[in-house]
Amino acid sequence: MIAFAAPRSRVVLRRALAITLEAALAFGTILLLLYLSKRHTVLGVWIDAAAPAVGGVVGALLAILIGTKPIPQLQVTWDRDAFRYRVSGEERQVLWPEYKGYRFTWGFPTKLKLLRATGRPIVVDFFAFDEEQRAALLTELSLRAGKALPN
């Protein structure tokens, strides 16, 4: 059996980045709506352009400080029978006979989607793992089902 655990620092960094981008998108959407309704700020174009980034950072800090969700512990394991992905004690598995390939998601942060013959795919936070772990995982997945499927 081969097992990898994602480094806690990478998980925290990816979570903070995702929260920052979501907050910036929300803040930027509000500013865009104000701009389109002709009620934009009179502070100038540079302030209007920088506001989503500042709002994203402030929103991320608030979400991290107020957030009650614990930082997940990510682990992947596989053996001759199945691939298993564990997030803070909750385990999902794909038996190798059910495995039909993998794809990368289009969203950000990018994740790895393992497809099954039946049932819903498993989505793995692929880039939370370090480079050597990702290379070993992709090698194993490629050997099991060939190449990555097109998005």
Can you describe what's shown?
The protein has 151 residues and is α+β, with helices and mostly antiparallel strands. The protein has helices spanning 8-36, 45-66, 131-145; strands at 2-5, 74-78, 82-87, 90-95, 99-104, 112-116, 122-124. The chain has two domains: 7-66, no CATH class; 74-145, PH-domain like (Roll), CATH 2.30.29. 44% of the residues lie in helices and 23% in strands. Strand 3 (82-87) and strand 4 form a beta hairpin. Helix 1 (8-36) packs across helix 2.
Short summary of the structure?
The protein is an alpha+beta fold and 151 residues long.
List keywords for this structure.
alpha+beta, PH-domain like, 2 domains, 4-stranded antiparallel sheet, 3-stranded antiparallel sheet, elongated
SSE layout and pairing:
Blueprint: E1 2-5, H1 8-36, H2 45-66, E2 74-78, E3 82-87, E4 90-95, E5 99-104, E6 112-116, E7 122-124, H3 131-145
Antiparallel strand pairs: 1-2, 2-3, 3-4, 5-6, 6-7
Global shape:
elongated
CATH topology of the largest domain: PH-domain like
Q: How far apart, in Å, are the first and last alpha carbons?
A: 30 Å
Largest sheet: 4 strands, antiparallel
